[in-house]
Write a structure and sequence with these properties.
The complex is a heterotrimer.
Chain A (H helix, E strand, L loop, with lengths): L1 E3 L5 E3 L16 H28 L10 H10 L6 H9 L1 H31 L7 H13 L2 H11 L5 H10 L11 H30 L2 H9 L4 H12 L1 H15 L4 H7 L10 H11 L3 H23 L3 H6 L2
Helix pairs in contact in A: 1-14, 4-8, 4-11, 4-13, 5-8, 6-12, 8-11, 8-12, 9-10, 13-14
Chain B lengths: L3 E12 L2 E12 L3 E5 L6 H9 L6 E6 L2 E2 L10 E4 L11 H11 L4 H14 L15 H13 L5 E5 L7 H18 L2 E6 L2 H7 L2 E6 L2 E7 H6 L4 H6 L6 E10 L2 E6 L2 E4 L14 E6 L4 E3 L8 E11 L2 E8 L2 E8 L9 E6 L5 E4 L14
Parallel strand pairs in B: 3-8, 3-9, 6-7, 7-8
Antiparallel strand pairs in B: 1-2, 1-4, 4-5, 9-10, 11-12, 11-14, 12-13, 14-20, 15-19, 16-17, 16-19, 17-18
Helix pairs in contact in B: 2-3, 2-4
Chain C lengths: L7 H25 L3 H4 L14 H7 L1 H7 L18 H4 L1 H6 L3 H32 L5 H8 L5 H12 L10 H26 L3 H8 L4 H12 L1 H17 L2 H6 L7 H6 L2 E2 L3 E2 L1 H21 L1 H8 L7
Antiparallel strand pairs in C: 1-2
Helix pairs in contact in C: 1-16, 3-4, 3-16, 7-10, 7-13, 8-10, 10-13, 11-12, 13-16
The chains are: A mainly alpha, B alpha+beta, C mainly alpha.
Chain lengths: 324, 369, 311
Amino acid sequence: MVTNTSKGGVSTIGMGKPRRFDPNDKKYIPGLLITPVQILLCVMLIFPFILEFVISLTEWQPIYGDFWDAFTSVFTTKINQGINYNYLVTDEPRYLQALGRTVIMSVISLCLEFLIGLGLASLFLKKFWGKRIWFTALLTPMMIMPVVVGYTWFMLFQYNGPINQIFGWIAFSPVNLQWLNDGTLAFIAVIVTEVWHWTPLFFLIMLSGLNAVPENPIRAATVLGASNFKIFWTIILPNMRAVIIIAFVIRGMEVVKLFDEIYLLTRGGPGTATETISLYLYKLAFEDFRLAYAGSAAFIVLVITVVLINMMLKPIRYQLVEGR
Amino acid sequence: MANIKLELVNVRKEFGELTAVNDVNIAIEESETMALLGPSGCGKSTILNMIVGLESPTSGDILIDGKSVLDVPPGERNIGLVFQDYAVFTHMTVRNNLAYGLKIRKMAQPEIDREINKVAEFLSITHQLDRKPDELGASELQRVAIGRTLVTSPQILLLDEPLSNLEAAMRNQMRRELRRIQADTGQTIIYVTHDQIEALSLAHRIAVMDFGSLQQYDTAHNVYQYPSNRFVGSFLGNPPMNFLKGKLGESAGRRVVTSGDSVIPLPAGNLGSDVAAGSDVVVGVRPESLSLASPDDPGSFSVPVIAVEPQGPETVVTATFGDSSLKVIVPTGTEAAEGGSIELVPKSDLVALFHAESGVRLLDSGDRV
Amino acid sequence: MPERKFTPFNFIALVAGLLFAVFPILWMVSTSFKLRSEWVTSPPTWISSAPTVDNYLTILAPHVLLERRGGTQQVGDENFGGSKDDAAGGAIADLLNRSAWPGIKGSIIISISATILSIIVGLMAAISISRYRFGGNFTPFFILAGRMFPPIAIAIPFVIMFGPKVFDITDTYFGLIVAYAAVTVPFSTWMLKSFVDDLPHEIEEAAMMDGYSRWKAHFIVTVPLIKGGIIATTLFIFILNWSEFLFALILTYTDVQTIPVTLSKYFSATEGTLYGVQAALAMVSIVPLVTVGFFIQKHLVRGLTLGAIKR
């Protein structure tokens, strides 16, 4: 039996001859379609990943000499391969501190973004004039480039900048906080910047979640005598569980990588006050030029983030693949 | 005279230009079961919301046990509401659903457990107390919704379209359940529905509404057999009431209604006595209220047959009366053929005469039950 | 029922939120029109007393300023140049170097190309995953993995890869384009996947029964039907590419610039940070973003949550 297909070769069934590759065949299409993305990712992600691992086994720095020699030396000579990892784990508190700072900063930012976003979204359930305009205005921070966000807040947080001025008006006495020169204040400044930048995302997601809560259970609870707060706590929030998790995971994935704004606000300083993992790696690799060492630190971070994020995604796996 | 539990006095609700509820007056007695019946948009849902407290009337008053509740928020009126879609709290177990209202009333835990067990047993859902709603079927969910309100001992129970979400087999079962609840608890129950069968099978008294106004409020029997206007007559009953247009006249000493060649003699009595001869009227008579007669029976009339549809033990015969069509239910096997004619006689007190324009029922005959 | 009424307290909260959201942007706008002497003052200058477009001219049309100065160094110019002793501040060469056009050109070329590449690759992958469930659960999340790496962690091997001994594509458009595509492909794939999911697969089956081959069914029937989604995704990815900073910073030196990198270079040893000029460039660069963002408002949630939430 021979069937003609409009593209490609002829598919023969049950004749014992080997099939020629038929791009129209159902079996091949998904594979063909997925190939470009696989190639791109292999070259741009897998390969660098492996490269980083190999490099991290050396002590190579650009000043030492040729990269290829260092690279091949890993396979040919028996140098101490774990040296970087050893050092990292045992002697470099800065690494762990950077990790710690990243976690704290991320958690605080996420919680603030969640609370403010939820509050704003609740407001939007009520009736008031000009909703569309308010809505667009509230979304603007999210659409500004991170570099611009960084520079803007850099200006605002200057010791002679408007933020101190406003605080001065409220406190009725001059305020001259050294936002970017004091460790704790700089940390706060970074959090404020990040919260400003991304609360609109939580706002959007919470709004979508609130709108999706069905009306009738709310009315049933009202008739049973529940107060507004109780309704919110026992009916509305549980119904939004999935949406809240999605928001935290999605933004959580991004906030731990935060670089642009911090770089522009404080360069990781003063000292190491705002040195998150991204900045620590940057300094290692591009200021100290200890590329191999940075490579090993980066490699560990890669592994941790992939594992952690996969764990975080587990609860919403189903929603993500099938669509809400 | 029994206690009046709930009273709507001149209740009116306007939404801007639209009048959803138009000066409605209803007095519901304690422990009675009544139905608020009407097509979509008739205002019954608005009345439901106002009784419960989710909406406020534009004018008029709502009294429970003689006291106005307009200032009382919905949670404190002690009214139970069961939604059409049950609105069970999906993220809580059945037990927590039932406990919800009681926890708000700050009841002690052991008491809560006792009440829950009582209601669960009453509604036969004890074995499901620790399950989640997504494991339950429709009629079980409904019982959870009912239980959730019963457990708070409401003074009035309101059910919105209780049978519409159930399959036919479940409906009978739920109908029996609801009657049992009625009988066992002595609760005052109000059903809100658009389904006249639901209303007729569940309620003592029915309030029929259309376009925001109350059309008739009477026992189920009376609303069915003695509709006060054409709308009520047309809304209840399946197959629907026949409406025969014609002119009022006189013949052989009786008043009759004629249309073209067809004549219907009206039963003796006062029927139509307040209307002048020659005016346009509409005769209303239900298919099951007409029976076969012989030509010399008093009060009988003849109509041409245009269709005969056997339906098992009964046959539906369609005839014409002037421009109107007329359906009769006769036992299968009766002689009736298309093109021929049949002789019919109505049950004397079940003929209604309506004003052609307004649809209002003209003077009637027979006694009311 | 949760109160629908809008209390004065609500109003205050809303206004506070609005002010907080908009204030920094307004500050930027104002700064871009400030005179040089107003950039850093104590107390800060909120609105310029004599707004000027010189900051914009500096970045977009420096020759206008040059002409105004007669082409020579000037003394005590209100807007540019420092004193005549300050060679770095007022130098003509320096002025020309502040032109933002190389950065603008670079941003445009790279953003558009990377977006196109990302969309094409992502669209094919999206069809494969959505219609054929290729790779089950693994492939979609593998694609997502690209988003999990901190860019800095992958930038380190990039530097080596792009470097002379390996691919030698540092400081080239091509290099950045491919890098950008790689990191945006997770978003484009997932977002497009959610649009393809929305389209019932019966449409393609009907097309195939009418004689279309699979390829035709996908690309002649399906793709036009999700046109709106493709446009929204394209704009979304464009925003991401336009805003990217780290890779541009690390992987380019002199030949290629993007706007974010140019912004970071407005710093001179003698004059300090050129706030006004930065503000002007910031304004110029965010105008396309805000405009685009406004148009795809409806789809922002879908894109940012990888298709999990469709508003």
